[in-house]
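EI: anyone free to look at a 202-residue chain?
SC: sure, send it
EI:
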Amino acid sequence: MQGGIFIFYHISGTLEYKSENFAVIDANGVGYKLFASLPTLSQLDEIGKPAKLYTYLRVGEDVFDLYGFATQEELSTFNMLLGVSKVGAKVAMAILSTVSPSKLALSVVTNDVNAIKQANGVGPKLAQMIILELKDKFKGADLSNIPGEEVVGNVFDSGNEAVSALIVLGYSPQEAKRAVAAVDPTLELEEVIKDALKKLMR
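SC: here you go
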């Protein structure tokens, strides 16, 4: 039986070492090895510079691993992924190395299996399970500020998918249909959703 323990909320110190999947932070003479995603590792400064990561301790019969995250959002997403059937810490970290928390949320809302299955160890069935089990958790999420480069490349050809995505986020079918109808239909699906969200939030 494995579980997560929040003994440390975050660890701050000096970056002592960095590899492709973990970093070592020296805090008051103790070197903490923290497994981390590629985006988190890329945000760390040079060796010898100050570093701070939010933490999650994974404990089990033969496991005692510490994970580090650049943001609380990434930590929260990691914790949600661990709650999905057949998703362990390694798979969750692989997903976060492939898609950002905001892009994962958008992929779940828009049923974008392809974006999620790009992660190592994630096939189509597992990607579909992740979408199914995380749908409710992303209800009401604010996706209007997602960077343009993070949107997935589905082309919008009808209002149905955008309307469905807005309903998942907690809007009524009537509100969703009105908002989507007021957006340029030639835009990509994710841009339609973002523009519709902006109209709904006014």
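EI: The first strand starts at residue 3 and ends at 5.
SC: 👍
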